[in-house]
Amino acid sequence: MLNKFFLVLTSPQLLLFPFLLTLPQTHALDSSTSTIPSDSVVSGRVSVQISGFGDDVARSHDCQGCPSTLISHIDESPLLTAERFCSSDPGCVDSVSKEVADAHLVAFYQLSTELDDHLKAEGVNMTAVEGKSHTYLDKVRLMKRLAQHEEVYTVCEVGFNAGHSALLWLASGVRRVLSFELGQYPYSAKAISWLSKRYSGRFQVVMGDSLESVPAFHKMWPEERCNLLFVDGGHRYQHATGDLENFRQMRNESFHFLLVDDTNQAEVAMAWRDYKDRGLAREEEVVWSDYSEDLYFNSTGSLAPHPDGIIHEWRSSISYGLYV
Ligand SMILES: *[C@@H]1O[C@H](CO)[C@@H](O)[C@H](O)[C@H]1NC(C)=O
Ligand SMILES: *[C@@H]1O[C@H](CO)[C@@H](O)[C@H](O)[C@H]1NC(C)=O
Ligand SMILES: *[C@@H]1O[C@H](CO)[C@@H](O)[C@H](O)[C@H]1NC(C)=O
Q: What residue range is the signal peptide (predicted)?
């Protein structure tokens, strides 16, 4: 049972996910970091540990400039892992945190695959599953970076769907995730039970139309506040506008991020633009992302969408900013 989670990739080129699942090598990882002198910067590997899966799961991949074994927990920010190892060398912090961030993304994609496998085993037709936010690498990078900000404790999202974004928040170490879901697809319930088992006590779903459920929830529990608000529900103008307005009441006034997904879609874009034009929100950044179900390490050693897997028509953007 435990062994199937210990995947050691012998070469970055193997990182095509369909391959990954059938890799024959399974090794337990050596976690004896304490025996490695801090000046032994050789080409090593990063081990990413993931808890919440019954056992403490570890995954690893090659890392240029890392010590022979560098342990990073998926819910620790890559910068902190790098600082712990590099002490005061800024060049080292830069390169190692980038490697660790990529290793975390690899681990997250594997977790997503486990969720997908569970849904498939439950008879869900994955071709018909909407959303799949984890297949947009650059969105995932942004979402994970924001979720790991030291002041983010609670994430609220409209649009749970098949649970990939909730999984990302939870795996990133967010203490509490509150999800509002319409519940139009039977697979949502299957994903909810899978996540609840692994992250019990940190995850809650409110079923129903968010235009009603968000204000109702807020009225009942006005002290519940969110440090990161993710708008990814109905993509029509009225729905996106309503979600933006209702989530406003739930923001944590001392610290929050606002994320709006799929701002490439006309009605969402219009809702977001109008909301900003009314002076109610400010945009910090727009991140565009290719869709690809496969990843690889490209010629410059960075994790990237695999060119063969990219579907150009599905390129999509996410905006982040804050309520003002
Ligand atoms: C799965 O869903 C896709 C897309 O909706 C559909 O084309 C396909 O026929 C479905 N497969 C099965 C086995 O139902
Ligand atoms: C708001 O967020 C901060 C952390 O950034 C936290 O300390 C505080 O408890 C939060 N307030 C509420 C009401 O949740
Ligand atoms: C490699 O991937 C990174 C991150 O996705 C990207 O910024 C970079 O341009 C890519 N380099 C090449 C040569 O494709």
A: 1-28
Q: What residues are in contact with ligand 2 under a 6 Å CB criterion?
A: 151, 153, 223, 225, 227, 252, 254-255
With 0.85 as the threshold, say if the pTM is over it: no
Q: Would you say 79 and 111 are in contact if contact means Cβ atoms under 8 Å apart?
A: no
- Ranges of each domain in the chain: 3-114, 130-323
The answer to whether the CB of 127 is under 6 A from ligand 1 is yes
- For ligand 2, the distance from its centroid to the CA atom of residue 154, given in whole angstroms, is 8
pLDDT 10s digits, 137-184 = 999 999 999 999 999 999 999 999 999 999 999 999 999 999 999 988
Residue 132's alpha-carbon distances to 6, 127, 162, 232, 253, in angstroms, are 25, 10, 7, 12, 30
Domain 130-323 in this protein, CATH class: alpha beta
CA–CA distance from 100 to each of 6, 47, 61, 73, 254 (Å)?
17, 9, 9, 10, 30
Taking the C-alpha atoms of residue 286 and residue 75, their distance in angstroms, rounded to an integer, is 25
Please name which of 193, 186, 264, 255 lies closest in space to residue 225, comparing C-alpha atoms: 255
Spatial neighbors of 175 by CB under 8 A, at least 6 apart, are 153, 154, 202
Residue range 185-211, pLDDT digits in tens: 889 999 999 999 989 899 999 999 999
